[in-house]
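Office hours follow-up: a student asked to see two folded examples consecutively, so here they are.
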Amino acid sequence: MTTKSSIHQPTDAPSHQFSRILLIRLRQIGDVVFTTPAVSGLRGRFPDAHLTYVVEPTAAPVVTNSPKIDRVIVAPRAGGLRGLAADVALGLRLRRDRFDLAVDFHGGPRASMLTWLSGAPVRLGYDILGRGWMYTDRVPRPRELRRRHSVENQWDLLTALAIPPPDRETIPVEMAVDTAAAARVAERLAQAGVAESHALVVVHVSAGSPFRRWSAGYFAELVSGLAADDPMRRVIVTSGPSEGAAAQVIADARARLAAAAHHRVLSCGEFSLAELRALFDRAALYIGGDSGPLHIAGTTKVPIVGLYGPTLPVRSAPWRSAAYIAASVDAGELPCRPCEQRVCAPGDFRCLTAIRPRQVFEAAIKCLRS
């Protein structure tokens, strides 16, 4: 229920009503990616407004170079009294900036507190038990996991601003290219022997949550199959920072190949988020689970094969034009799917183990030949 009626106005209302807008979305990479259409919507509605975005370090590169955002504030997450004191200090800093609109796309305790501390006269957020009072305007958010895309769920907050529903054809997810990162990627690919004539496949083999982590053995079987299938194909295996998943998959994949084909499976070290974004512009295909890199890939034109275990493609498949290829592979209907990803009720992660390497390989080849 909305508690402040003054922002409900016709779509031809003056665009200068809000001149300083604060956006808050903490936590995961994909969550921040899914707010970028809303950023576009706000920029289109209020073209002269100054937009500030508060984000945590991990996902900061998603919005850092956005031409639609005037300032990015990176808010490291810390626990205990020290973290609380830092958040209060940040909130008071935001208050001094005199925002006239604050939008909390997150809804967690930390984000809602920062929104409230900003002192913005209009504060949009979800109607969450125990925290709804921190907002002047609240939008209902059902507790159940809906079969509806996360972009649309976050866009719900903009309905109070008379902004029309999003269209993935015209307002896709976005992440600007970092030119320095692109140059580094080009150099690393050249050093690895990747030429323009090679079809480059990027396979991301890790995820922050075990509920979204496909078997390393399955990945090795997939990578070796892709490498063996075409001598002009090169497969780069990536994983999260400081994770050994990529090295294990590379070693196992090469062990399945003839020695003469080992060079088709590449180890190029770790890639930052900005470097991954640039790498995808060079790729013929991206394959990975429902994690941050998949959503970064969704900001590009690269064909994508997404692996969905406990999550649903309808909620988190790439939000971009249908002209760009995207295939979703999952285990189909299961009584326990989707889930909250806190405990595996059957205990065997069947939503992941039921996805077989052959399924993913066939989806990949179809995308590559489309």
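And the second, which I mentioned at the end of office hours:
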Amino acid sequence: MPLATRPRGTARREALLEAVLRIVADTGPDAVTHRRVAEVAELPLASTTYWFSSKDELLAAALALAAERDIESLHRRSEQSGRGGPLARAVEVICEPLHEGLRASRGSLIAAYALWLEAARRPELRAVNRRWTAAYHEVIAGLLADAGSGDPAGDAQLLVAAADGLLMEQLAEGGTSDLRPRLLRLAGALLESR
């Protein structure tokens, strides 16, 4: 990348974190090194060590960036008026990112889930995971409450967990089927069981 087009300041930090997410999506968290991140970001190695003193810091900051972006998108999606009632809207809010630029979202999802699982080995990632999951639970619980759920928090937890499981299965299998019908069926069954 020519010097004139290289990012500066906090834009450089964000470019490094984008590189971390690409590496994690392509080859996993173990492949993240300062040198590899600098190569993928097309920035000098000193850039990585200026902003991040360790691999742990790189991974934690990349996960935080991914979570922050998705939480902002989640709130935007939940505030948009959608087709169908609140139950269909809850499912749509969960599934909508999968249909916006499938290739890009697939890489983002792989990176997010890989880092989510990395929290089993790296406790410093757990707080971000908890905040990210809590945001989904809160938004989906609100929509399920509007749909008449007797236990919106519990139903939201089950619906989000089911979506995560189905998404991880699809990512592992390379599939791209529409999850909405299955999640809508599950959401309907949760409401009927109360």
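Two things to take away from it. The chain has a mean pLDDT of 89. The chain has one domain: 3-192.
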